[in-house]
Amino acid sequence: MNNIEKKIGIIGGGQLGKMMILEAKRLGFYVTTLDPTFDCPSHSISDEHIVADFHDKNAIFELAQKSDVITYEFEHINVQALSELEEQGKIIYPSVKSLRTIQNKYSQKQALAEKGILVPRFGLVCKAEDIYKYGEKFGFPLMLKTCKDGYDGKGNYLIKTKEMVQAGFDALYKNNELMVEEFISFEKEISILATRGINKEIVIYPVGHNIHENSILDTTIVPAGISAQLEENAKEIGKQVMNVFDGVGTFCVEMFVKDANTIYVNEVAPRPHNSGHYTIEGCRVNQFENHIRAVVGLPLGDTSLICPVVMINLLGQEKNGKTKVIGVEEAYKITGVNVHVYGKKESKIARKMGHFTVTGNSAEEALDKANKVRELVKIIGCPVKIAQDGK
Amino acid sequence: MNNIEKKIGIIGGGQLGKMMILEAKRLGFYVTTLDPTFDCPSHSISDEHIVADFHDKNAIFELAQKSDVITYEFEHINVQALSELEEQGKIIYPSVKSLRTIQNKYSQKQALAEKGILVPRFGLVCKAEDIYKYGEKFGFPLMLKTCKDGYDGKGNYLIKTKEMVQAGFDALYKNNELMVEEFISFEKEISILATRGINKEIVIYPVGHNIHENSILDTTIVPAGISAQLEENAKEIGKQVMNVFDGVGTFCVEMFVKDANTIYVNEVAPRPHNSGHYTIEGCRVNQFENHIRAVVGLPLGDTSLICPVVMINLLGQEKNGKTKVIGVEEAYKITGVNVHVYGKKESKIARKMGHFTVTGNSAEEALDKANKVRELVKIIGCPVKIAQDGK
Question: What Rg value do the Cα atoms of chain B yield, rounded?
Fold first, then answer.
């Protein structure tokens, strides 16, 4: 089959799925989304939308029937159903093996460590005593994590001292796998987006400097303001990680810069990532287009940076309610500002509702402008109006 | 109402409508399309699609009910229905007055000439004798045109000599308005895209050099390879034209460069235009996004060129039939190539099915690469396969 004729199925219809579809549509692809929310961000731009839970095996099989290749916008999905499909010969990218290894943060770290990639020291936790043991070995603080299903800081618990061990264990343990990691006191958090093709071709995006607030990504700054050597090293690690997981598609590798010579891999996501949103305005071919190219088997596009760029997330503010976006008109008076509104009908406090990017002649200039825009553009929740007829 | 909350109605669901929607969706707009073809390019990415003829007044009124602002992707539509809606207070951009004047090439030229903008000499034709008269005045060849509904060379007839007058008249006259224009022997055809806001703010895109084949745009090259002075003059004319028509939205002004000092305005389109497709990869904010920004009342975006770029149209080839795209995989091995497939189900010979752009370090390099890509990527019609059950 001609690559360009492949029908694409995407599990997940959030903002990442939406942004994949916007790129797929330029190339004329037919896209089916699987997402439990009827009016999810991808809904209005999908050719078809299967409204079903991510773990609904029948729905995933239905998606497979409608698609020549299946991909996904997040990793906490029914890997067993995908595995059966893959055995039946269905094309799934990234592969089930990649997904299965990455989905579990312990096996992810193991795979990286085995290949000699530097990661914080880590260990499996079955009972609270294990944490004390690692505390003696790695020292405190320790990061306690659920091995699966964590994101945006959910499923993480920072155990600052020995006295917090039991509380941390009790907070996260529900007969699930837990792990601890050595706490890395880093100079900077950075991330790399990389796309790898079916033919093992790899393209790497410029390094982004990430700033988190309350464990949620707040800002990405590109260039990252690190030395050329560190930039090179981070890119090299990005390549290695793609090969470790035999990744096909766009992956994100989050890293800690400990010092001028030391980069730790923190976490890997087998999909386009929030910290790569800057690539839409900042790079020749963005992370979503390269993801689509990779999974259908097309050669990958140029990841060059067009100009310095800053991305800031727009989280739901004030209160939960009907989504209202304010301040875009004022913000657009500033050159180089692009606001993305995901189209989630309900705004919730701290929910990712949109983001904006600001380009500039330097990262500093872009950041200055971005901080002005931050004061202008907000997404808030409003009380839902009920129509007079009660509808 | 907050600009960002406005629901947008678009008359026409072809490639221009599709590209408008792709930009509107990033900003989270709700979009309804009116187009007679169920599976038109805009269909799968519109929130709603009213399947109806462009002249169907009821359908246009239905679109108005679903939209806070109406715009359109081509100009041969029911201006009377729009006029009634505008009188009722509906927001339509570009305005009905702009549309009415531009829709008729004679009144378009009159409006330009009245404001002192240089256009080829022209005159209204009611009978064949009028053409002889203008022939004596302007000389042959003469361009005979239908005043309305012409595009891509349809409705144009080049009268090379006196002997062809009657044949030309007979070919185009069907109780409709005709006009003649002095034939300009030009050095270069160029066009300007310009966007004007509700507040009369104007942004102008870099000049493109257009090459037509069989009266259909084939290639746009940017920069246009003209002197800085001509570039400046063309941009100034673009601004003047936007003001003449009180345009809101993105317009295209096609021009003839006669010599180093003389630019004629050929035709104006009150909408984004094929010769501005290069802006998607070539400019910071493309013609479609600026169109959307203008019609909802947002400040306009940066039209700066990112790098030299060439656009080539992909017309249907070989025969009419089910659309098949070939050669994208080979083409994507060349850096800087982006293929756009409009998603028209049926390929027809000479129908606009897609386009590609190629970026480069210089226009020459981009053009070299583009000519390679032209040999690779083709859209052809295949015989439609009939399923065994006859469906």
Answer: 21
Dump pLDDT digits (tens) for B119-159. 999 999 999 999 999 999 999 999 999 999 887 778 899 99
**Residue A294, min C-alpha distance to chain B (Å):** 11
| pLDDT tens string A304-329 | 999 999 999 999 998 999 999 999 99
Tell me whether 0.85 is exceeded by the ipTM. Answer: yes
Percent share of chain A, pLDDT over 90:
93
Q: Averaged over A245-269, what is the pLDDT?
A: 97
Q: N- to C-terminal Cα distance for chain A?
A: 48
**Closest to A357 (Cα-Cα) out of A345, A369, A347, A346:** A369
The closest of A245, B308, B159, B240 to A253, measured between CA atoms, is A245
Which candidate from A281, A293, A341 shows the least CB-CB separation from B332? A293
Count of C-beta atoms within a 10 Å radius of residue A35: 25
Radius of gyration of chain A (CA): 21
Q: pTM for the full model?
A: 0.96
Q: In what order do the strands lie in the sheet with B122-125?
A: B122-125, B178-182, B142-146, B156-159
The pLDDT value given to residue B2:
87
Q: Tell which residue, B87, B77, B68, has the closest CA to residue B30.
A: B68
**For residue A284, is pLDDT > 90?**
yes
The pLDDT of residue B391:
39
- Facing B2 at nearest CB: one of A26, A297, A326: A326
Residue pair B270/B282 in contact by the 8 Å Cβ criterion: no
Give residue A391's pLDDT: 40
Query: How far is A210 from chain B, CA to nearest CA, in Å?
Result: 23
- Cβ–Cβ gap A299/B332 under 8 Å: yes
| In the predicted structure, residue A359 carries a pLDDT above the cut 90 | yes
| Whole-number average pLDDT of chain A | 95
Strands B31-34 and B91-92: what pairing? Answer: unpaired
Q: Which residues in A have their CB inside 8 Å of a CB on B?
A: 2-5, 18, 22, 25-28, 30-31, 44-47, 281, 284-285, 293, 297-302, 306, 324-326, 328-329, 332-333, 335-336, 338-343, 354, 359
Whether the predicted pLDDT of A372 surpasses 90: yes
Predicted confidence at residue A150, as pLDDT, reads 80
Partner residues linked to B268 by β-bridges: B253
Q: Are B147 and B100 in contact (CB under 8 A)?
A: no
Question: Which residues does chain B have within 8 Å of residue A328's beta carbon, measured at their own beta carbons?
Answer: 3-4, 27, 298
Determine the residue among B26, B199, B342 to mutate to test chain A binding: the one whose Cβ has the most chain A Cβ atoms within 10 Å: B26
Low-confidence ranges of chain B (pLDDT < 70): 385-391
* Interatomic CA distance for residues B23 and B66, integer angstroms: 19
Q: Which among A193, A156, A190 has a CA at the least distance from the CA of A19?
A: A193
Which of A4, A26, A45 is closest, CB to CB, to B325?
A4
Burial label for B154, CB within 10 Å (0-12, 13-18, 19+), is exposed
Q: Give one DSSP letter per residue of A250-300, joined into a string.
A: EEEEEEEEEETTEEEEEEEESS--GGGTTHHHHBSS-HHHHHHHHHHTPPP
Give dist(CA B8, CA B298) in Å, integer.
Answer: 13
Q: Which residue of B has its CA nearest to A344?
A: B28
* Residue A389 pLDDT exceeds 60: no
Cα B175 to Cα A342: distance, rounded to the nearest angstrom: 51
pLDDT of residue A385: 64
Q: CB-based burial of residue A129 (10 Å sphere; 0-12 exposed, 13-18 middle, 19+ buried)?
A: exposed
User: Using the beta-carbon criterion (under 8 Å), do A28 and B332 form an inter-chain contact?
Assistant: no
Token pair belonging to B122: 């022209």
Nearest residue in chain A measured CA to CA from B41: A28
